[in-house]
Amino acid sequence: MRAIDAGILICTECHELNKQDPDADEQTCTRCGALVHARRPNSLMRTWALLITAAILYVPANLLPIMTASSLGQGDPSTIMSGVIQLAQHGMYPIAAVVFIASILVPTFKLIGIGLLLFSVQRRQPLSAQQRIIMYRFIEFIGRWSMLDIFVIAILVAVVNFGRFASVEANLGAVAFASVVILTMLAAVTFDPRLIWDNTESDDDDE
What we know:
By secondary structure, the chain is α+β, with helices and mostly antiparallel strands. The protein has two domains: 1-38, no CATH class; 41-206, Up-down Bundle (Butyryl-CoA Dehydrogenase, subunit A, domain 3), CATH 1.20.140. 55% of the residues lie in helices and 12% in strands. It is built from seven helices and seven strands. It has helices at 43-63, 80-89, 93-123, 129-142, 148-159, 172-190, 200-206; strands at 8-10, 17-19, 27-28, 35-36, 67-71, 74-78, 166-170. Strands 6-5-7 form a three-stranded antiparallel beta sheet. Strands 1-2 form a two-stranded antiparallel ribbon. The chain has a two-stranded antiparallel ribbon with strand order 3-4. A hairpin with a 2-residue loop joins strand 5 (67-71) and strand 6 (74-78). Helix 1 runs antiparallel to helix 6. The model is unreliable at 202-207 (pLDDT under 50).
């Protein structure tokens, strides 16, 4: 049985259990005073908006140069994939693999995973609640590793600054990539995981 079936609302701020008042238009938490809802208002709409924006920015994030490393006044801009290829060509395969996973696979999986999660919840697709919650928790877990490239660039820009001898500059690709990471993290936050359990019974009936 779900909490909502028992007339209980959970505060998203302090996690206090509140007895639902069917006559109240708005209800506040008895502990912290925050507004409580059976489900987050417009959760699916907000998550879709963030996800679509992130998907649009994902294209320039991978096509535009993410940074330019110059040595003795000469340097070529590098995209994420070209950086991975250069690392592999120099024999730094573990680092290349880490960058590829964190900067290519993780954002791609998050975009596809959140999209599938939204579609399965909204369209009642045949995914069990257990499969959905595992996917949601995994998306939340891997989200923090997507900023690896941005951290590396920020450190290089701050440390490697020797004028004409050597320098590193961030390019527009870094801005687009950081925007994708932030938007996907916000999409995971705005999605209400309680929606996963709302159509569990219908899913079980279809199996």
